[in-house]
Design brief:
By secondary structure, the protein is of the alpha+beta class. The protein is 26% helix and 23% strand. This is YlxR family protein.
């Protein structure tokens, strides 16, 4: 077993959380993508099924990591957006719903 939580013999694709920098199998992280909204702002939306087009930013699916991503502007940096002003609330809402489901 390696120290980052992934087994040496695990063939699942690994992704890196843009906040914690932890490498994890992609099914343990949440993929987020940028979508332009009608008012011209960029929204960061969750892509739990990993099917939306475009560059993805992967985060550990917890509210504390989401808060750190917003504070550090990690979404804009990872998604290579030309603006640092983004609306990441759709990801927060998704994470809150996941927490209440458990």
């Amino acid at each position: 077993m390696s120290g980052d939580g992934a087994s040496v013999n695990d063939n699942r694709p690994l992704r890196t959380c843009v906040v914690t920098r932890a490498k994890r199998p992609q099914d343990e992280l949440l993929r987020c993508v940028a979508q332009a909204s009608p008012d011209g702002t960029m929204k960061i939306v969750p892509d739990p099924d990993r099917v939306k087009p475009g560059r993805g930013a992967w985060i550990t699916p917890t509210l504390s990591v989401w808060e750190a991503a917003v504070k550090r502007r990690a979404f804009a940096r990872a998604l290579k957006l030309s603006t640092t002003v983004v609306d990441a609330d759709p990801v927060r809402v998704h994470l809150e719903q996941k927490e209440t489901d458990h």
